[in-house]
Amino acid sequence: MDPGHENQGSSSCPVYVHNPHLKTMKEDVLYHFNLGTSTHNLPALFGDVKFVCVGGSPWRMKSFIEYIAGELGLEDPKSEYPNICAGTDRYAMYKVGPVLSVSHGMGIPSISIMLHELLKLLHHAHCTDVTIIRIGTSGGIGLEPGTIVITKQSVDATFLPKFEQVILGKNVVRSTDLDTELAEQLLQCSNRLNQFKSVIANTMCTMDFYEGQARLDGAFCSYTQEDKQDYLAKAYASGVRNIEMESSVFASMCKLSGLKAAVVCVTLLDRQKGDQLSGSHQVLHDLQQRPQILVGHFIKSQLESSGKI
Questions:
Q1: In degrees, to the nearest 5, what angle opens at C-alpha 127 toward C-alphas 22 and 37?
Q2: CA distance 287 to 303
Q3: 288/137 Cα distance (integer angstroms)
Q4: Contact assessment for residue 88 and residue 32, using Cβ atoms and an 8 Å cutoff
């Protein structure tokens, strides 16, 4: 059994890290956040965090914190919701009440770096019972644009539910399972909202936006339209309903840390019908709001049911 799961049945679940070297360090510098254990009182700053939402762009994550502040009645007309990571241009971080909102950039390497430091931050802050949700955009397969996909499993480009990484020259394969109960709770929230369609399905995580996702519009392309359609049809048959570039490492790292985790992405187009986004800026902007509306409703309902708001 993974040591990160031994105590999940207890009343208070800490955020696990699995690195014995951390105990021997006098200081842990979270370099890409411009935070550290000797320069900041992490328990005082972050110890009350119960929900973490991560997404690609700094703008989207600031928009989310402004939205959730309003939903929870914590908005401050005088507040600009300052970026906690203002000392670096790598990531952005915002906080209101028990909710932390963090940008992760684009692709597996960028989100992986952010997650290492985020998980250590939550650990050093002695956070417990944390739920983490990635909100974002994706390309759909066989779905109407605007549909929300709540990820059941993240699969690789060969449709296998695994994340593979080379460590010390050796391939290490980790599970990409996500919390099934959390996914069902999010789907129920969407059904109660009744504003847009949501489904639970597999998400394909790729290493690149163009060739890795069978696009025909990149700088290089060595396959035909028929090849593309055949590949996407196979993906659909395997249970994949959307494609993005972060879910596999997100799922694997959250599972190792014992965190309840979910991926909630809106589909901006049906990839079986095209490769490029043709909608107006306003339409695309409205679609991008859907994950934050759903997750905001979920967080509010969870805090209401626990009597914390």
A1: 40
A2: 26
A3: 7
A4: yes
SS3 226: helix
Q: How far apart are CA 273 and CA 236, in angstroms?
A: 14
Instruction: With a cut of 70, say whether residue 7 has pLDDT above it.
Output: no
Task: Please identify which residue in the block is written with the tokens 């979920």.
Answer: 298
Q: Across the chain, what does the average pLDDT equal? A: 93
Name the residue with higher pLDDT: 252 or 5. Answer: 252
Read off the pLDDT of each residue in 70-78 and give the average, rounded to a whole number: 83
* Number of other CB atoms surrounding residue 274 within 10 Å: 13
Query: DSSP letters along 108-173, please?
Result: HHHHHHHHHHHHHHHHHTT-BS-EEEEEEEEEESSS-TT-EEEEEEEE-TTS-SEEEEEETTEEEE
pLDDT in tens, 146-194: 999 999 999 999 999 999 999 999 999 999 999 999 999 999 999 999 9
Q: Name which of 144, 150, 148 is nearest 269 in CA terms.
A: 144
Residue holding tokens 């695309």?
Answer: 284
